[in-house]
From TrEMBL:
Annotated source species: Cyprinus carpio (Common carp)
PROSITE patterns recorded: RAB
Family: Belongs to the small GTPase superfamily. Rab family.
Alphabetized GO MF terms: GTP binding; GTPase activity
Protein name: Intraflagellar transport 27 homolog (Chlamydomonas)
Cellular localization per UniProt: Cell projection, Cilium, Flagellum
């Protein structure tokens, strides 16, 4: 799990101030090479660097970078869901195309009411067994887990436990945040999986449950926004633990 700091304009201002002070100290030392001037120059440089770092850490925007594994049976709508999320609803796959490997998708999500964001690297993985084993080789220490099933297919829901068992060994023993997504909610008349049963099972696995439709604008975002919030909360908790030890 990584966290990078997107530094604001204040960093440039602080750097300029530091450079100006350092140049002033150098000029003083050139005309008076006393030990006192050398010490003064060194002290000023240290102070400026400390101030610069502190100000930047205070005003910067935190961008958490994480890897999310998206798994589930073939034809449940994983790729359509991920593509809609990445394109902000602009791209929907009308024709089914079987994924035979892992497609890497990148998307930045801003957390509402905060200055923070989460940078997703989504591993959209193949759902058919001949290709699933090869996909696992790319699941290197995922930070998040998204398991998708089709609400019109009870078999795809039953397979979710198998997909969770595939992903968790790659998490190095960590309980990573995750969601269970019942996709194709627009086909509710053909539903085979009860919402309450799916939600109850998700809770038993430590997952948050969502029902979505990759076809409908506004529904595809909820699972990923939930993951982003969970990941940011986990990161902030770890920061507090580290700060308490300092």
């Amino acid at each position: 799990m990584l966290c990078v700091l997107r530094v604001s304009l204040s960093l440039c201002v602080c750097v300029c101030v530091c450079v100006c002070v350092c140049m002033l100290c150098v000029c003083v030392c050139v005309f008076s090479l006393s030990l006192c001037c050398v010490c003064l120059c060194f002290f000023c440089v240290c102070v400026c660097v400390c101030v610069c770092v502190c100000v930047c850490l205070y005003v910067c925007v935190c961008v958490c970078v994480c890897v999310c594994v998206c798994s589930g049976d073939a034809a449940v709508g994983k790729s359509s869901l991920c593509q809609m999320f990445r394109s902000d609803g602009a791209v929907f796959q009308k024709n089914y195309t079987m994924n035979v490997g892992v497609e890497l998708l990148e998307k930045s999500v801003s957390i509402p009411d905060t200055s923070d964001a989460v940078e997703f690297y989504i591993y959209d993985s193949a759902g058919r067994e001949p290709f699933a084993d090869a996909c696992e080789n790319m699941w290197n220490q995922p930070s998040l887990m998204c398991v998708v099933f089709d609400i019109t297919s009870e078999a795809s829901f039953t397979s979710c436990s198998r997909w969770i068992d595939r992903v968790r060994p790659h998490c190095n023993g960590l309980q990573v945040p995750g969601v269970l997504v019942g996709n194709k909610s627009d086909l509710s008349s053909r539903r085979e999986v009860d919402t309450a049963a799916a939600r109850s099972w998700a809770q038993s696995q430590g997952l948050e449950y969502h029902e979505t439709s990759a076809k409908e604008i506004g529904q595809y975002e909820a699972p990923f926004l939930s993951l982003a919030r969970a990941f940011l909360s986990l990161y902030q908790d770890q920061i507090q633990i580290i700060q308490s030890l300092v």
